[in-house]
Amino acid sequence: MATPTTATGPTTGPLAADFAAVLPDTCVITDEVGLRSYECDGLTGFRQVPAVVVLPRDAEEVAACVRVCARHGVPFVARGAGTGLSGGALPVADGVVISLQKLRRILEIDVENRRAVLEPGVFNLDITRAASPHGLYYAPDPSSQQVCTIGGNVAENSGGAHCLKYGFTTNHVLEMEVVLADGSLVTLGGPTGDQAGPDLRGLFIGSEGTLGICTKVTVRLLQTPESVRTLLADFPSIEAAGDVVGDIVEAAIIPAAVEMMDSLAMEAAEAATGAGLTVDAPAALIVELDGPADEVDAEFEHLTAICERHGATRLHVPTEAEERARVWKGRKAAFAAVGRISPDYIVQDGVVPRTRLAEVLTRIAEMGRDAGLRVANVFHAGDGNLHPLVLYSEAAGEHDAAEELSTQIAELCVELGGSLSGEHGIGTDKACSMPRMFSPDDLDVMHRVRLGFDPDSRCNPGKLFPTPRLCGERPGPYRPHPLEEAGVIERL
Amino acid sequence: MTDTQPPTHETGPSPDYTSERGEKAAPERADVLSGDFGSFDDHHPPAQELLDDCVHCGFCLPTCPTYALWGEEMDSPRGRIYLMEMAEKGEIPLEGAFTTHIDRCLGCMACVTACPSGVQYDRLLEATRPQIERNVPRSRADRLFREAIFTLFPYRRRLRAASLGGALYQKLRPATMDRLLAKLPRRLERLVAMESLLPPVSVRDAFARTPIFTPAVGTRRGRVGMLTGCVQDVFFHQVNLATVRVLAAEGHDVVAPAEQACCGALGLHAGREEESAERARALIAVFERAEVDVIAVNVAGCGSSMKEYGELLADDPVWADRAAAFSAKVRDVSEVLADALADSRAPRHRVDATVVYHDACHLGHAQKIRTQPRDVLRSIPGVTLTELPEAEICCGSAGIYNMLQPEAAGDLGRRKADNIRGTGADLLVTANPGCLLQIRKYLEGELPMLHPVQLLDASIRGVRPPGM
Amino acid sequence: MTTSDPTTVTPSSLEELRDAVLDRPGPIRVAGAGTAHDWAGTPAPAGTVLSTTGLSGIVTHNPGDMTAEVWAGTPFAQLQARLGEHHQRIAADPAREADGATLGGLFATADSGPRSLQYGSLRDVVIGATIVLADGTVARSGGHVIKNVAGYDLTKLLHGAHGTLGVLAALVLRLHPTPQVTATVAVPCDRAAMTDLARRVADSPVEAAAVAWHDGRLLALVEGSERGAEARARRLVETLGDEAGLLAPDDATAAWEAHDAAVRARPDDRAVLRFGVIPGSLSGVLDGLDTDTGGLTEVTASPRTGIATVALPADADVVAAAHRRVADAHGTSTLRQRPPGADLPAFGPAPASAALLRQVAASVDPDQRFGRGRLAPWLPLPSTTVGATA
Ligand SMILES: Cc1cc2nc3c(=O)[nH]c(=O)nc-3n(C[C@H](O)[C@H](O)[C@H](O)COP(=O)(O)OP(=O)(O)OC[C@H]3O[C@@H](n4cnc5c(N)ncnc54)[C@H](O)[C@@H]3O)c2cc1C
Ligand code: SF4
Ligand code: SF4
Fold first, then answer.
1. Distance between CA atoms of A418 and A437, rounded to whole angstroms?
2. Looking at the structure, do residues B320 and B362 belong to the same domain, yes or no?
3. Contact present, C and B (at least 3 Cβ pairs less than 8 Å)
4. Touching chains, C (3+ CB pairs < 8 A)
5. Which of the residues B317, B335, C249, C290 has the least number of beta carbons within 10 Å of its own beta carbon?
6. C201 and C254 belong to one structural domain
7. Which CATH class name applies to A12-99?
8. Which residues in chain C have Cβ-Cβ distances shorter than 8 Å to A424?
């Protein structure tokens, strides 16, 4: 597959020249227009032009590129599809971007053993597309599944609507090939869930590209469930919808997915997709049950009873696969669709213990009122993962207020015993909030582990860890964990 | 979605976020506002509001053919929009890399379908291409080559000559064309691409005319005007005849005015705005005189341009209203036929075949016409429709793209051919001559390829479909 | 300090644990209930045995959130019983549970049982941890919510670390509801037939939670609601043919207990090896090992996960050859039970990642204070084995 020559020259500096020695010219980008195209990922607030962008075509070439970086002592940043929402793939000044978008082959779909071997640039949804003729699928399904890559998923430990029941990327990756900062190739994990020695695989997953570049991934495939039933239910209040979630759990039902949307989010999603959401309902739940038909039928009855008990104003049961797909399309398009009801917005990502959902939503509404900004909510209610969308107008000068509100919301989640991020990662965006969640010792240990992988910190530096340069004067005071305050745990 | 796919997860073609997009009102024309347009001139630069709609989410990347080939950000919709923004801010010049990456865009509009945020890339591209044509000096070779194409293509007579090939072609080829080709440096690649696309055509077909008036069979449903097209009428004359027969069989009087010429689509998509506007005016006038209820088009690329005449001529005080009225009448032939399905007049005969339908970009992405042709095909007893993997990705034809960017077009053509082969279908149908020409090049002789109306026509007439 | 006379300390709070690590000089061997004292490598002499058994009990359990934080020294069986009062459980069933193994011990040894087919191993249900490092640093990672991607998942580093790198003080777990009904379907079959039968289980829509072969039978476990589980088990019986049958509850319990007993067995003069290969290779590797070793005993195998536990002669060459055979099939293997004093290789040939492991170990426990020898030879003993570092 030849790339037409971009207006690039391999002659801009010794670094580019060394890359040109290991890659064809067309895979080394040094022209300004090309470089600037890579200056940001899905979070456009942070931009940095890299020195060089390289597009290796296989694992060996990735390793060769990393060795060139090592020789020159320059940092590098791996990049998948660049859909990350925390600035994880933001280039580093004078650094190299290593794009994995030419490593896009599905190497194997092993039906008998239910696994797929993939290059890192394979789009998440393409795994399921390749597996589905065999009655199999790949479970983690981020809303961005049609475009995010399995390598990015590994780096962010991505999850999706169905991770309540099926877990995250880490629960589905068996084995990985990784290029370390010195350019060596190692295999982490093993063919089963039983690795020998420490689980370095699990450590790597979710490390946001700071421990190396993943060049091959073996994932588990699951059998397509016999039966899937989806319920779309409207409720008179967010609280009522929240109570339903509690009761579902109480009833020992583990739904495949429980998603909640508020009226503002539904307005946007409906405008984009016509998915059949009730625009003026205060809250709606999408609940999906899947599994053997015998189980699903029994649980579904129970589920409708719970919804009715909590005053559901509408119960819609899409029966056709197409209708169900439309409901999901509405949900999955919600983020990007908010672009239709507001000129600008920030997607926040935080987690609270499920039982504190109603509380956190009330607080968010108050904070929004105080800041004079609208907040739409789309979230994975089953696991307490919130995605408040702070709507604002850049033109009206509301940017800073919106940023502040968004950060406050994430930190509120930590205060309520939750997490700064459920799926989008820390990246550049939240590095400065890390001290709210972790003590200096916690962070120090993470850093020491990192040095074991990458002694010179050349893998995606400046991400995940708070750095004085990034955070200025604002590392924030250490706050005790709520359980610590309650005297339940102690920490030193 | 087919049955084998897992019920919980979206598979198959990527979701279409535009089908219900409820077109936004046309943005304020940037040119009537005063302002600084960076590297663009002030004649309809891409509107800032349209650029702002892009939230950089990347949902459009997997459907973009050039991104599928190379995986480079600059050759993706998100990247191209980003380049437009930079140009709008004056941070990069139009000349050089900007032009390279915009030139490589196939204009397939798959990105418009994929975008959840409602970005109107179609409008952005239509605003950007003329900026390049006006402001970027092309290399001599490039300029001459483009001229050569536009000297040949939109002219039925010259195409007829070209279609005959060999000595006759040399003789009948317009002198201007000869002069142009003579001046071209040895850009063999491109020439080979151009010539090899032209299929051999029987002399009879090449010079045949579509009947000017064909009366409806049985009770009359309406009076349909028909675009005969330039490439279509020469190389796919049989498609035009089939269209006439099928429309008549379904109860339409069919009018195909003899004086109609090229609709200007090829030029419009290449940024030749003025030339296209002129052709549009002429075509509008022809069909006004024909007094038809509906204008049926069997070439996806032409139909999508004709539906946009209203916008193309919006600035023209004399023509704006007439153009809008014209555009409102334009329908793809499959829309007209699908409407008739509920009360079909023409009985079908069985055609036992597994048929794979390829969505032409200008039909699927640009006109959002996906179900109608499938419904029409399903109305033929015995036909089993199968779906194509990577259905949303362009075959590489894209107007004159396969001549301007032969290498990329070749890679895309082979990719499409592999996918078609993989379905094991007996027959390929697609509603655009460009796609047929392009795909034929990579699947020559492997399976018959038809326009949907040809299959329907065979079924109605109870004859074997051509090539089967 | 003499090697034969280590001091045992049993802290009962995080503070005491940290103090013990800081106050005691030199190498420390971490011990839970001692059910895996002979697993992995041979521990080098250590002046201190740090028992986690004093760190026991549930720190916090929030049934509504289905999470619990638990001290690492809590006996697993006891923990399950407590959670069971709320109709919740940890979805893991390691055989050593019955011997009193602690949660931390099971995690550190990466132990898992047949239900790992559906739920994964403990690494999949632990969502956070409090860890004490050799220099007394106390670090937390993860948190109390199921979904959390903030920071490194440090907890994973201690899964399978066999008491090296750091001490687990407490773990946070995601819980699952206790199923109303469990039912077991059994089919008599020899080992050669297990792969095909297990494939039939997997291809049927009933979603078995576990499939294991032991003692001439394939067992398939179905868990679920009252109405659903029985119906599914019956469907499974139909799928598996005439010889398959639904076991009566007592028989089912006995069958799984016999399976677990084989996994835990300490047969005389034999060593126990645990290995995992790609499921399709399992049968072949078992047959090869049978030939190599003159006959495996206590075989339990999970034909859908590719994991098996087998006993073979406690001979260094035999064990090394077995490790090699597994490695040749691209699998992983770890030595488990062995006769007292037997010096046997713990792991197969060192993979490329062993160098990485050494670097990480050097960064978090530079003096190899914890569990010295357990990961040898991948993590070799330090060349100077002298004492105090405090
Ligand atoms: C509209 C929208 C919806 C989203 N919904 C979800 C959701 O539901 N759930 C969810 O989890 N996320 C979601 N995301 C976030 C994002 O899609 C995920 O984080 C995704 O995993 C990123 O993949 P990517 O290929 O785009 O990676 P990139 O953005 O390119 O990179 C992300 C990080 O991974 C690193 N990286 C990339 N490839 C590799 C590699 N091969 N080896 C090592 N490191 C690598 C990069 O350095 C960077 O730090 C959403 C994003 C958008 C825009
Ligand atoms: S029109 Fe087609 S080629 Fe151009 S950017 Fe959009 S998807 Fe890519
Ligand atoms: S064009 Fe649409 S889909 Fe593509 S990046 Fe922009 S907003 Fe996303």
1. 9
2. no
3. no
4. A
5. B317
6. yes
7. alpha beta
8. 149
A300 touches chain C (CB under 8 A): no
The values of phi and psi at residue B204, to 5°, are -65, -45
A21 in Cβ contact with A7 (< 8 Å): no
Residues of the domain holding B289: 205-338
- Token pair of B278, please? 């002129």
Q: Please give the structure tokens belonging to residue B284.
A: 């509008």
Domain containing residue C329: CATH number: 3.30.70.260
> Topology of domain A227-415, per CATH?
Vanillyl-alcohol Oxidase; Chain A, domain 3 (3.40.462)
* HEC secondary structure over B16-82: CCCCCCCCCCCCCCHHHCCCCCCCCCCCCCCCHHHHHCCCCCCCCHHHCHHHHHHCCHHHCHHHHHH
Structure confidence at residue B145 as a pLDDT band (50, 70, 90): confident
Q: Summarize pLDDT for A416-471 with one digit per residue, the tens.
A: 999 999 989 999 989 888 998 999 999 999 999 999 999 999 999 999 998 766 66
Do the chains contact at A102 and B116, CB–CB below 8 Å?
A: no
Total Cβ atoms within 10 A of residue C336: 24
Mark which residues 394-423 of B lie under 8 Å from A by CB.
405, 407-408, 411
A439 touches chain B (CB under 8 A): no
Q: How many CB atoms are closer than 10 A to CB C242?
A: 8
CA distances from B427 to B298, B445, B465 (A): 19, 11, 10
Same-domain pairing of B212 and B317: yes
Q: How far apart are CA C184 and CA C246, in angstroms?
A: 6
The encoded tokens of residue A266 equal 């539904």
Indicate whether this complex's ipTM tops 0.90. Answer: yes
Q: Which amino acid is at A149?
A: T
CA atoms of A238 and A339, how far apart (whole Å): 23
The answer to whether A197 contacts chain B (CB < 8 Å) is: no
Q: Is residue C253 one of the residues assigned to a domain?
A: yes
Q: Are residues C273 and C303 in the same domain?
A: yes
Q: pTM value?
A: 0.90
Paired sense of beta strands A344-347 and A385-392, if any: antiparallel
**Contact yes or no for B236/B197 (Cβ under 8 A):** no
Q: How is chain A split into domains, by residue range?
A: 12-99, 106-223, 227-415
Confidence of residue C208 (pLDDT cuts 50, 70, 90): very high
What is the CATH code for A106-223? 3.30.465.10
Which of C354, C152, C322 lies closest to A188 in space, CA to CA? C354
Q: Per-residue pLDDT tens for A167-211?
A: 999 999 999 999 999 999 999 999 998 899 999 999 999 999 999
Residues 65-124 of B with CB under 8 A from A: 67, 69-74, 79, 82-83, 86, 91-92, 96-98, 100-101, 104, 114-118
Cα distance between residue B262 and residue A464, in whole Å: 59
* In a domain? residue C286: yes
Structural domain span for residue C227 = 184-262
Ligand 1 neighbours (beta carbon < 6 A): A 41-42, 77-85, 88-89, 100, 120, 142-144, 148-149, 151-153, 155-156, 158-160, 208-209, 213-214, 335-336, 423-424, 460; B 57
